Amino acid sequence: MHMQAEVFDWRARINIDPGVQSGVPVVKGRRVPLYVLVGHMAGGDTWERIAEAYQLSTDDVRAALAFASYLLHQRGLSIPPEKDEDFDDDEGWTTLA
User: Fold this and answer.
1) Terminal C-alpha separation, the chain
2) How many CB atoms lie within 10 A of CB 13?
3) What are the backbone angles phi and psi of residue 55, rounded to the nearest 5°?
4) Domains of the chain as residue ranges with CATH
């Protein structure tokens, strides 16, 4: 079953600039990397708790998750090799179709 998601403009809240955090996607104006926010969500933290910890709005936190969803939809999914420390190396990654 495919559910239609509510339209949410994450682009207004996300910044990707080589001069900010080496081009890692961040919350606009805050320099907080999105992977940090998504990691907290994966760990069970609430949007409210994350927003408070990083002095963000809950919509900023929501934008991080929406951006991650967009990337997975646009670029597909790859499974990293067994060693987690090799994330920067494309060798060994398996692409799922």
Assistant:
1) 19
2) 23
3) 55, 55
4) 10-96 (1.10.10.10)
Q: Which residues pair with 75 in a beta bridge?
A: none
**The residue to which tokens 């927003």 are assigned:** 51
Q: Which amino acid is at 69?
A: S
Q: What is the pLDDT of residues 36-52, one digit of tens each?
A: 999 999 999 999 999 99
**Confidence tier at 69 by pLDDT (50, 70, 90):** confident
Please report where in the chains the tokens 């999105």 appear, as a residue: 34
d(CA 19, CA 84): 27
80: Cβ–Cβ under 8 A, 6 or more apart, which residues?
86, 87, 92, 93
